[in-house]
Amino acid sequence: MINVTVIWALIILFIIQPEIAHEGAVSGAQLFIHALLPYLLPYIILTQWLLKMPSQQPAGQWSRYIKAYVLGSFGGFPVGAVTVSEMKKNGEISSAESSLLLASCHAPGPMFIIGFVGNELFGSTASGWKLLLAIHLANIAFFLVMLWFLRKQRMKMVIPPAVKEEQQNTSPLLSSIKDSSSVILLVATTVIFFSSLGNVLSNLISTVFPVDMGVTKTLLLAVFEMTSGVQSATEHFSGDSLYPLLIAAIISLNGMSIHMQVMTIAKGAGIRILPYVIGRAWNTLLVPLLFIWMY
């Protein structure tokens, strides 16, 4: 009943503030088209194409982990979820391993962190490298700690599933393009929706309560859509001494848009979400601290 009430309340808000909702949706669409689609789509297609290629011999345990991390962690969100889901479907990793790797193979693309955040926002490529290093150090540390706790579960042998005849007759490239289209549609939908929702709610709160619009908008967009939150933080706090820490915190938080993408993909592959949730809490606390320590 609460969910239905919330949905109706949001529908009414969108009807009452159509221009604010439209502004947020346009911002999200432009963000997706100009910043996400050109880089994300080719990488997802190539990653899926590589994962769909038939393997000649089974890879070792650590080789599979390295493969998942390299392919999944350097393509931007939600490539890690796509990579781990495909490897689980192919029988390369077990259910326990897929849950752990889903939480660990999760990082923004190097081009975004080094080029956009480091060079354009911080005015220093070195700062972008430090933030990227902090993110990957936190991910790897989480993976090793959780791997030790789950060491008994991860040793189970993975048996590749039987491949259907129609799948054997399908080109890996065509299959990759088909599967990638659904992922891209998911990314576009979540980015546009949560950007619009963040705009509407921030405008409502600033109207009803005597709070600063810049603070409200930045906090809400950081919760709902990471890149929009980064842009809002830059607009309102770029001269503040805590600005680098704020950017690191927003990026490590990720936002509901990215979490919904990952959870939808993981659910389709039957991957448990709890380790991912724990991993996000770990990164939200650890990444800003590591970055400030190196900054």
Number of helices: 14
| Helical proportion, percent range | over 70%
Unreliable parts: 162-166
pLDDT averaged residue by residue = 85
Structural class: mainly alpha
Taken as a percent bin, the fraction of beta residues is under 5%
State the distance separating the first and last CA atoms.
47 Å
The count of DSSP E runs of length 2 or more, i.e. the number of strands, is 0
* Envelope shape: globular
Count of folded domains: 1
Radius of gyration: 20 Å
Oligomer: single chain
- The secondary-structure element order is HHHHHHHHHHHHHH
User: Main β-sheet, in a few words?
Assistant: none
Features:
single chain; 295 residues; mainly alpha; 0% strand; globular
Provide a descriptive summary of the structure in words.
- The protein has one domain.
- It is globular, with a radius of gyration of 20 Å.
- Helix content is 78%, strand content 0%.
- Helix 4 packs antiparallel against helix 5 (95-104) and helix 5 (95-104) packs antiparallel against helix 7.
- The chain is mainly alpha-helical and 295 residues long.
- The N and C termini lie far apart (47 Å).
- Residues 162-166 have low confidence and may be disordered.
- The chain has 14 helices and no strands.
Question: How would you concisely characterize the structure shown here?
Answer:
The protein has 295 residues and is mostly helical. The protein has helices spanning 2-16, 18-52, 61-73, 79-89, 95-104, 110-121, 125-149, 165-168, 172-208, 213-224, 226-237, 243-253, 256-268, 274-294.
